[in-house]
Amino acid sequence: MLGLFKRLPDKVLVSMSGGTPVTIAGRTLDPMVQFIAAQGAKNPPMSSLTPNEARQGMDEAFSITQNSLHGLASIEDRLIPGPRGDIAVRVYTPKDGTGPYPILQYMHQGGCVIGGLDSCHGFCTMLADVAACIVVSVEYRLAPEHPFPAAAEDAVAAYMWLRKHGDDWGGNVERMVVAGDSAGGGLSSVITHTLKREGLPQPLCQVLIYPWVDAAMDTQSYTDFGEAYPLDKAAMEWFGSHYLTSPEDVSDTRVSPLRETDFTELAPALVYTAGFDPLHDEGEAYAEKLREAGVDVSYRSFDSLCHAFTALGGAVPAAHTALVDIAEDIRAKLH
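-> structure tokens emitted (335 positions)
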């Protein structure tokens, strides 16, 4: 059904979803995103759902909107040891080129409450194919069953294990990348700061896609896009209510890595934000802090797109283009 709507002219999509283009803070929303947002507005807000209801809704929606799968040599579900039991991972091996391949550890979105291996499956196949690397998608523990700091602990533990054992899977452990979107982007940054504190080598690159790096929710983009689709301020408050255990957690740098005091000597970074996203400004601020500390940073805002566009590649042509651009940027860093 979405394939049919993708072929409609922009004017028709806009007329079917409010009648006028949505322009906020000088940015105009992509017409297909506007159409999807209009349909999504008919559903109950995430903040009214239980975690299990929200997880089911995310799985159903993303199964429709993700980009089509890229052909790979193999996709395997495996288990690796974690701090509180095994961690499920999905390993994507490219079919082109010869190993050992660079290894990209991917952490999915979902506010550390929802999401999993399936919610980023389409994008991970694209990353493995286009960037010619082994992608290891990590199913870190979720709140409220496993509140802070469980997700951060699992993200770091997965990296440490892959650094020691990734060569067993045909990977090159000297050429590792940490990547993720939203909460997963924040977890990627937590890995780099943890490695620095422990005096361990940085990954080759960190890829932060509309990262959640400050839980204060006090930026201008929270004002401008506090009612955006699919992520609004109420949803962010809902995530925090399930993931965080006390008000003091907001200032913990494993929740809010933007509050770290030292950004020097961190891994080179590719940072991407979405224009219609309450998290836009904190992602931009994180890129600027890295740049000020002398870190090699490439920053780009996809101004017409919304939060979670990594899961919209099959529904929104502009999102698909953005994902290809990101994958090609990663390939340029790796090869």
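The chain has one domain: 2-334.
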